[in-house]
Amino acid sequence: MEKKIRVLVAKPGLDGHDRGAKVVARALRDAGFEVIYTGLRQTPEQIAEAALQEDVNVVAMSILSGAHGHLFPKVVDLVRKNGMTDALIIGGGVIPEGDIPALKEAGVSAVFTPGTPTSEVVKYINENVKL
Amino acid sequence: MDIAEELLKGNRLALSRAITAIENEYDEATEIMKKLYPHTGHAYVLGITGPPGAGKSTLSDKIAREYRAQGKTVGIIAVDPTSPFTGGAILGDRIRMNGLTLDEGVFIRSMGTRGSLGGLSHKTADAVKAMDAFGKDIIIVETVGVGQSEVDIVKAADTTMVVLIPGMGDDIQAIKAGILEIGDLYCINKSDLDGADKLVREINMMLDLDSLMTEWRPPITKVVASQNEGIKELLDTVEKHRTHIEGNGQLAERRTKRTRDEILDILSSNIGTYIKGKIVDSGRLDGYVEQIKQHETDPYTVIGQVMDEMLK
């Protein structure tokens, strides 16, 4: 019996830059996780549905457009509505410090801003994931 | 929740959880499979295999859309390789299928190979059964990008489609053994590129030489998946093959063989796990290794002893 951590790496919204998401995806792979990468320009509905079909333990979103305040909480909402109460939801990208408390309030359990070493993300997931 | 019961009621999260239980070999997986098994056998399983970059995911996406247009429900299992070094994987097949995510008649699941070398994961067949019991009409199983010998797909699929693209090598490649022997159908993707017609000729030549060929000659269809060209024609050949093997009893034969193989596979895997548990956990294995290092005994003698003991 082997419990493997499955992570959905998703890019909600309209910005077309996924280098960051790919670097994180690669780091998570190297940490032994199964990373499902869904590509650019996903709606919150698509992300929540993919999370359900893939039965992931973690939903990791990257956003650079500034729409995090709208999109992150929506994903949290939809994922929870789908009955995935345990899934860890985290975010990253160009996100002003001042916005972070509201995102956490909305259920995004951690927010990683530019310059965060990928090892920190891996550590956070390992310590907080519910299997 | 009772996963099997909920799955049979059409709960998508239950299907997802069932596949996780199967993949991770949770204790409850066997019970789930027992409850699902009576509800299997209705779906038609289409295997799609081919080298990396041949366009298998794009093709799966287009094929699924075409089946949806015909009113059929579709399950897709997309397998990508697990790193043998870290155990991690990047499962990226969904990128080509994003347009299907919100269609309730489609369920897509990505799987890592997790150490299996045949192009699928060991648990793919059971995941197919879960989708079958869920009520999917068609289940598409997409293998990892294969080389020349990953042919497990023929055991899992009712119809196996081999996807090739122009420019992958000369005609000697086409007469080698392996994936070029397993196609019930051949699909030439990216056929707007140079060399597509030459590839069709080469495959035809290979098929001309096939002495094992029965009354079914695998059709070759040229498509451009990204442009949705040739998909209808391709699915016509799937339908033809299905009708053919349903008519001559081959489908029943394939499925019977699958059941036999399955029982043997699970038995040997369980017996292997049992024996490993006995000699690894007790520390006996380390003892044997030490004795062998000292030349006091040899692996064959040790295996004989262990087998005698286990089979008593």
TrEMBL record, chain A:
Keywords: Cobalamin, Cobalt, Isomerase, Metal-binding. CDD domains: MM_CoA_mut_B12_BD. It comes from the Bacteria. The keyword Transmembrane does not apply. GO terms for molecular function: cobalamin binding; isomerase activity; metal ion binding. Gene3D superfamilies: Cobalamin-binding domain. Its cofactor is adenosylcob(III)alamin. Residues 4-131 form the B12-binding domain. It holds the Pfam family B12-binding. This is Cobalamin B12-binding domain-containing protein. It comes from Selenomonas ruminis.
Automatic annotation (TrEMBL), chain B:
Keywords: Chaperone, GTP-binding, Hydrolase, Nucleotide-binding. The keyword GTP-binding applies. This is Methylmalonyl Co-A mutase-associated GTPase MeaB. SUPFAM superfamilies: P-loop containing nucleoside triphosphate hydrolases (SSF52540). Pfam families: MeaB. Belongs to the SIMIBI class G3E GTPase family. ArgK/MeaB subfamily. Residues 42-270 form the AAA+ ATPase domain. InterPro entries: AAA+_ATPase, GTPase/Isobutyryl-CoA_mutase, GTPase_ArgK, P-loop_NTPase. The keyword Ligase does not apply. GO terms for molecular function: GTP binding; GTPase activity.
